[in-house]
Sequence to fold (360 residues):
Amino acid sequence: MVLERLTFKIRKRILYAIRISCLTMQSRKQACKGATEEKLCDLAIIGSGPAGLAAAIYGTRSGLSCLVLEKGVAGGQVMLAPWIENYPGFPKIEGLKLVEAMVAHAREYVDINEGTEVVGIEKEKDIFKITTTAGVFRGRSVLLATGASHKKLLIPGEEEYYGKGVSYCGTCDGFFFRKKKVLVVGGGNTALTDALYLHSIGCDVTLVHRRDVLRADQHLQDAIAEKKLKLMLNTTVERIDGDGASVRSVELKDVKTGKVTKMSLDGVFIAVGTTPSSALAKALCVDIDNNGFVKVDRSYRTNVPFVYAAGDVTGGILQIVAAVHGGAVAALSAFEDLANPYYTRTRATAEACDSKREQT
Ligand SMILES: Cc1cc2nc3c(=O)[nH]c(=O)nc-3n(C[C@H](O)[C@H](O)[C@H](O)COP(=O)(O)OP(=O)(O)OC[C@H]3O[C@@H](n4cnc5c(N)ncnc54)[C@H](O)[C@@H]3O)c2cc1C
Fold:
């Protein structure tokens, strides 16, 4: 297992280095293409994780001309997953392999502009002007598939043992810790959901939260109490230790007394929040919820006409299947709207957007 993970990491780094070294050249090509400001696509997809890739396939197959803009390397967060065991059709596959398959499939339909970060979007009449680090692109509609990232504790050992016992996703990695002792860090809905999930698959779970009360919904707190999960309030994780290959223990601090104790365990699940990449959405006056996730309806339309969002940036279960679903539905909604507009563009909509922009 350890060897497999090492090999994975080394392979990932080599692949990443080769692809990044090609990007400068590739970005220049894309810059020329974009800088002419002549190329207008039907659907500009921002982000090439599972949501963006699925959208590219569904959008192009429905007859839309699509463009994918990706600030890094195509594939999104899945690249960071050592193993995926819950994506239908693949009982167990390395994240990188799944990404390669998805990217190759999408490339059959669309160009993926890697190394092309979108830094601004503005509406000019009926067209979105998309400014990137590699020039300007234009789209009749825009899909935000920019993903999200997990908040970190920023403590010693967290980075070193990531993938070796430290995880940010109970649903993704819990299975590796069945019958083992794990710590879940956090007091919100995600932390409690992870704790319950890990308990349900047979982990010995302790939930640790830095405050004196949990923030999660009452029904989750009731479930934690009912299942008699161990709970440590007013406690912070100070460091994560191991033998180099796996996590072995953590240092916990009682924030009231200052007392530090050591706990032996096998895994640490950190669930202290997710940061959605929703800056572009805000710039477009798209409605955002209290946690920063983009609000969408069941068709993945936002409140702004011809702007769609899908995947982790919209919240929910933050899983590949959900991202793929959202991307596909959003692309078909864009097709529907461009072929037979669903939105009525009124002066009121434009004014509402302008006044909102002024307030922020
Ligand atoms: C370690 C790890 C393990 C995981 N394991 C599993 C698992 O086992 N099963 C599972 O279902 N899910 C798993 N997940 C979650 C899964 O990877 C995500 O739910 C999924 O990748 C979300 O897809 P997405 O397309 O919404 O976003 P992402 O995959 O995050 O892709 C977003 C893309 O947008 C790009 N982007 C962002 N901003 C810009 C910009 N301004 N301009 C251009 N591009 C931009 C990013 O570079 C990125 O490539 C795991 C995640 C991690 C980190």
